[in-house]
Amino acid sequence: AAALEHWAEVRRIRDTARLACGVLGLFLSLCMFLLAEPFAALVAAQPYALFSLLAIAPAALFGCLTAVERGYWEGLQNMTPTAVSLGLGLALCQWVLAHPEIVCRRVPADVPLSALAAAGAVLGVTLSTAMGWLYFLLRGLRSGNRLPRGNAPAAPMGQIFRRLLYVMIPVALGSLVTNLTSLLDLVTMMRCLGRAQMLHSGELLRRFGTAASAPDSSAHPLHGK
To answer: Which of 136, 155, 161, 208 is 20–30 Å from 45 (CA)?
Structure first.
């Protein structure tokens, strides 16, 4: 649409994508919040993974919204907004990793350090997506809509939505196939390792005695112990 200088359609494509991805991202975030506990306990067989799942849940919403803005500006051949949003997100992620005692101050004291570290790292990813979206929001409020008005009428929102689906569904299915292998590893390997630890703890201790005899990870400075 931009190449044809159909600026009204460019605006409508952006509005349609914002609405569709916003609703989809909100739905996915709610699903992750509500299903985090049973997924951690029943699928991953790691109850403490709950904190990481809760920390990553908002990223579904902010990731969808940020993807729309990045795609919009990249489609207009402007990579600067994408670069700035990524830079701000990485900077915030690095800050979270460097200051876990601030971010995880209210975590229960019985949570192991490993679970806390994983949740802190994941929270950095979530905050980076939120920072990227916030940058696009502030940029839009400051600069407004500077596209030319254009004379060509825009296609109906329903038609644009169907065209977006034709592009989004194959890409999403491709990503799903790639991530299914990680999900299968999570479901199988964690359970196999847990069963091996339960049935053959003596052999594991003989082979990996140094690691097994390490201090209890739940006693760490973040919990004041």
So the answer is: 208
CB atoms within 10 A of CB 114: 12
Conformational region of residue 216, where left means phi above 0, alpha means psi within -120 to 50, and beta covers everything else: beta
Q: 214: which residues sit within 8 A by CB, 6+ positions away?
A: none
Instruction: Please state, in angstroms and rounded to a whole number, the distance separating the CA atoms of residues 8 and 13.
Output: 9
Rounded to a whole number of angstroms, the CA Rg of the chain reads 22
Q: What SS3 state is found at 39? A: helix
* Single pTM value for the model: 0.70
3-state helix vs strand vs coil in the chain, percent to 5: 80, 0, 20
The number of residues in the chain equals 225
